[in-house]
Design brief:
flavoprotein; alpha/beta; single chain; 18 strands; 8-stranded mixed beta sheet; FAD/NAD-bd_sf; disordered C terminus; D-Amino Acid Oxidase, Chain A, domain 2; 5-stranded parallel beta sheet; FAD-bd; FAD/NAD(P)-binding domain
């Protein structure tokens, strides 16, 4: 397809990944971000092989090795006594098994790397989308400051509370899990008894503590999953009550209580997701990342799935089209490309999204007698191995949906 003018709403991880993939494919890309300045806040995140293999193809392999951490192992430890129940090597063993590295990385570091792939001026801040219209001659975007933009394609990459998703599908209903996640960073020097090269999980009867290194192991990201009261609002940035965090881990082993004592600041994230959509887009408009498939963090796949989305979308916006799409002119070719993108990606992300509801570290809860579940680590790895082995680009010519096939 000849060069397409593409407007992306949202300059988070998904929006920047989409912009990078589409720019590499030769399209004209503009990213509209509602914040007044660029910058990613937050803590660490998991970047699993299904995402890193694509980022390496985009030329970020050396930068990831320099900025991220490749953990040497994952350990499950007993919540009360602190003994190591099981240890699984990662590092080179994980790379060999899944075909690409597993990294833990600070969100701001990955955000900066993705931004560095874009030509200057690609991202426009202070642009809060209010409405859009999709017509035969293109998509018109209108912003809160009175500005407008026109494009051939609109991609909503503006997160769970996506304006684009709302316009296409309505507000949706959050699905609350009854759990909250406290998240934050501690300096490794404040907890020198804890390793700087290992993913740690302590799984108790009602709560879990996860810990992993970022920024060369100088900082550790913690994620504490605790019960939450009913009716809590959907928030990603509520200040975390450190007293409530400490109370949730009273009576746990000394490593965990020392970790909690070292926390100076945390955010509380009440864990919601949405039911999978029956379709993502319409005409020349589609969704990507959390706007399309918001999911719980238990598989560590929020960013990985957005990167996969970006790669597949760029493929189909550059792929040859069947005669019936060519006969529909430029708009017909665009609509067909977006249809094929969704038809390939939506079944996959739906499976990941639904699987994350009861997967990941949730499988490590101790049994009634306080012991770790039998083969708990094997179960956890098996739970995500199909996701991490997936290469979203490898078989796309064969995976392409026949023209006009239902999504």
């Amino acid at each position: 397809m000849p060069k397409v003018r593409i407007a992306i709403v949202g300059a988070g991880m998904g929006g920047l990944a989409a912009a990078a993939a589409l720019t590499r494919a030769g399209h004209e890309v503009r990213v509209h971000e509602q914040a007044a300045a660029l910058g990613e806040v937050g803590v660490g995140m998991h970047l699993t092989p299904n995402g890193t293999r694509i980022l390496q193809r985009w030329g970020l392999g050396d930068a990831l090795r320099a900025r991220a951490v490749r953990p040497e192992a994952m350990e499950v430890r007993e919540w009360a006594g602190g003994t190591t129940l099981v240890r699984r090597p990662m590092g080179e063993a994980w790379t060999a098994e899944f075909g690409a590295p597993y990294y833990t990385v600070h969100r701001a570091d990955l955000h900066a790397l993705l931004l560095g792939l874009l030509p200057p001026g690609t991202v426009r801040v202070g642009h809060r989308l209010e409405r859009f219209t999709d017509a035969e001659d293109g998509v018109r975007l209108e912003f809160a400051d009175g500005g407008v933009d026109e494009a051939d394609v609109l991609i909503g990459a503006d997160g769970v509370h996506s304006v684009v998703r709302h316009a296409l599908h309505g507000p949706g209903t959050p699905v609350f899990t009854g759990q909250s996640a406290f998240r934050g960073l501690v300096a490794r020097r404040d907890v020198p008894h804890l390793p700087g090269d290992t993913v740690l999980v302590w799984a108790g009867p009602d709560a879990r503590m996860l810990l992993y290194p970022v920024r060369g192991g100088e900082q550790l990201t913690f994620v504490a999953i605790v019960p939450a009261g009913e009716g809590r609002p959907e928030s990603w940035s509520e200040p975390g009550d450190l007293g409530a965090l400490a109370a949730a881990f009273t009576g746990w082993n000394e490593d965990v209580t020392a970790l909690v004592a070292a926390v100076r600041q945390a955010r509380r994230w009440d864990l919601h997701d949405r039911e999978p959509l029956a379709s993502w887009g319409r005409g020349a408009v589609t969704l990507l990342g959390d706007a399309a498939h918001p999911m719980l963090p238990h598989h560590g796949q929020g960013v990985g799935q957005a990167v996969e989305d970006a790669a597949v979308l760029a493929h189909f916006l550059g792929a040859p089209h069947p005669p019936h799409a060519r006969a529909g002119g430029r708009r017909g070719r665009i609509a067909e490309a977006l249809h094929r993108y969704e038809a390939v990606r939506r079944p996959h992300t739906t499976r990941v999204q639904l699987g994350s509801r009861d997967g990941g570290s949730q499988r490590l809860r101790p049994t009634a007698d306080g012991a770790a579940p039998k083969d708990s680590m094997s179960s956890l790895v098996q739970d995500v191995s199909w996701i991490q082995r997936h290469d979203a680009e490898a078989d796309l010519p064969e995976a392409a949906v026949p023209a006009g096939a239902p999504a």
